[in-house]
């Protein structure tokens, strides 16, 4: 709750005029600068007490007695405090020399505490759902536009960080990013680990042999184990190839339990995704070059992901598990997700690295023209009244949920800020008991 009070003080939501516990008039002229290190909460604040102006530090607590409990009365670093702001003035507080520090009590109406409590509840749904209708559309639209750009920067920075780790190799960076995207959230981490586990040079050496490519990938994925009683002829071939290649290159496989299958249809099993990853390596991996060459044509960009799986994977969803499979490796919705989470961020990151803002803006425009991602989070936002018509909006809503709602950052969210500001109407000191219950 102290953090809430710091937030309200910083953004001048308390108001300007109060009365000290002593009865003297108090006017806030400048709230000061928030201090995130040791020492008083705000520095260089300016206030008027009675007829005298003071410049110095401000300390904020839920209860005045916290001053003693934290040992500030024995710490000279707090002797510069000119004002103590509290919700509950349960005692007088002093400096190290015994001099009394002026104190002001500030509390709020029941509606404010009810709102803050609802925003702070640790629930999975949209916390401010019942309040969203009150927020002006202009505020919501402006914030979502900002969040869309913020999410794009987050994705691009991840790609550029990978690029730095890989010594500036763009195709290798594209391969790792593509592999992660193939995990579609559920298996993103294991796919990324798999892509990093094999040097690109090894994969290029075997780019003309699909059996060896699949052996390398399935083996590194921990899916080839000779101790398992699978007598499938193709599986046995892969095991033999991987045993030879692993010894040749000194490779060590991942733990197979990293892969997740929960609520996944056979068509989308990790095995088929890995077979697709091998398919993209056939003849050499050059996806980024193709994406850059077709950057102005979304339809042709989609066609990049039109691979088909043949042979063994037309009749299997897993090793030793027969099933009639669609030859097409990815459905239309999966291709759209790759456009949203792979192609556009790659184009934006490439534009950033080359200092080309025009191409960066074109990438953002492509998000605005793509259909939205549709998942549990987006459905919850829709239920809360936040419609989603394009990928830019769905990415903004995902950013809002994952980086603000789920991280308890309501105080950093413009929607939470607006709601709290709209509800702030400081009351007299008889209301301090309401806040004390939150302390």
Q: What is the global morphology?
A: elongated
Give the strand tally. 9
SSE ordering: HEEEEEHEEHHHHHHHHHHEEHHHHHH
Please state the structural category.
alpha+beta
SSE topology:
Blueprint: H1 2-10, E1 17-19, E2 25-30, E3 33-34, E4 42-49, E5 52-63, H2 66-69, E6 81-88, E7 103-105, H3 110-120, H4 137-165, H5 170-182, H6 188-197, H7 200-205, H8 210-220, H9 233-249, H10 270-281, H11 287-293, H12 298-303, E8 316-318, E9 321-322, H13 332-353, H14 357-369, H15 376-383, H16 391-405, H17 414-423, H18 432-436
Helix pairs in contact: 3-17, 4-5, 4-13, 4-16, 5-6, 5-13, 8-9, 8-10, 13-14
Q: What do you see in this structure?
A:
With 439 residues, the protein is an alpha+beta fold. 47% of the residues lie in helices and 11% in strands. The chain contains 18 helices and nine strands. The strands form two sheets. Strands 1, 2, 3, 4, 5, 6 and 7 form a seven-stranded mixed β-sheet that branches. A two-stranded antiparallel ribbon has the order 8-9. α5 (170-182) runs antiparallel to α6 (188-197) and α8 (210-220) crosses α10 (270-281).
Short description:
By secondary structure, this protein is α+β, with helices and mostly antiparallel strands.
List keywords for this structure.
439 residues, alpha+beta, seven-stranded mixed beta sheet, 18 helices, 47% helix
């Amino acid at each position: 709750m102290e953090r809430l009070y710091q937030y309200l003080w910083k953004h001048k939501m308390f108001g300007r005029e109060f009365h000290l516990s002593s009865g003297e008039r108090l006017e806030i002229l400048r709230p000061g600068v928030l201090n995130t290190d040791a020492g008083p909460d705000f520095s260089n604040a300016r206030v008027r007490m009675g007829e005298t102006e003071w410049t110095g530090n401000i300390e904020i607590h839920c209860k005045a007695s916290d001053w003693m409990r934290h040992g500030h009365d024995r710490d000279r670093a707090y002797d510069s405090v000119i004002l103590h702001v509290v919700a509950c003035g349960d005692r007088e507080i002093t400096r190290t020399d015994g001099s009394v520090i002026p104190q002001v009590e500030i509390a709020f109406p029941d509606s404010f505490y009810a709102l803050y409590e609802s925003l702070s509840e640790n629930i999975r749904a949209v916390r401010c759902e019942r309040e969203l209708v009150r927020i002006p559309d202009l505020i919501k639209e402006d914030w979502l536009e900002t969040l869309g750009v913020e999410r794009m920067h987050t994705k691009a920075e991840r790609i550029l960080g990978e690029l730095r780790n890989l010594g500036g190799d763009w195709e290798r960076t594209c391969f790792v990013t593509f592999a992660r995207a193939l995990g579609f959230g559920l298996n993103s981490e294991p796919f990324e680990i798999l892509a990093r586990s094999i040097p690109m040079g090894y994969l290029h050496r075997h780019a003309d042999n699909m059996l060896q490519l699949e052996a390398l990938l399935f083996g590194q994925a921990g899916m080839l184990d000779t101790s398992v009683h699978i007598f499938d002829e193709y599986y046995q071939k892969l095991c033999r190839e991987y045993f030879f290649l692993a010894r040749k290159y000194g490779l060590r496989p991942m733990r197979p339990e990293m892969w997740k299958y929960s609520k996944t249809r056979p068509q989308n099993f990790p095995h088929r995704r890995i077979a697709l990853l091998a398919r993209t390596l056939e003849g050499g991996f050059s996806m980024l070059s193709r994406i850059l060459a077709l950057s102005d044509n979304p339809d042709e960009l989609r066609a990049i992901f039109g691979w088909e799986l043949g042979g063994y994977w037309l009749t299997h969803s897993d090793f030793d598990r027969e099933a009639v499979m669609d030859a097409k490796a990815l459905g239309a919705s999966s291709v759209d997700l790759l456009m949203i989470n792979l192609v556009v961020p790659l184009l934006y990151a490439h534009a950033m690295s080359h200092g080309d803002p025009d191409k960066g803006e074109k990438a953002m425009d492509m998000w605005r023209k793509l259909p939205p991602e549709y998942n549990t989070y987006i459905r919850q936002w829709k239920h809360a009244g936040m419609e989603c018509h394009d990928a830019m909006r769905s990415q903004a809503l995902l950013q809002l949920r994952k980086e603000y709602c789920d991280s308890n950052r309501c105080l950093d969210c413009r929607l939470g800020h607006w709601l709290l500001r709209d509800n702030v109407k400081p009351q007299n000191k008889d209301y301090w008991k309401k806040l004390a219950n939150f302390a």
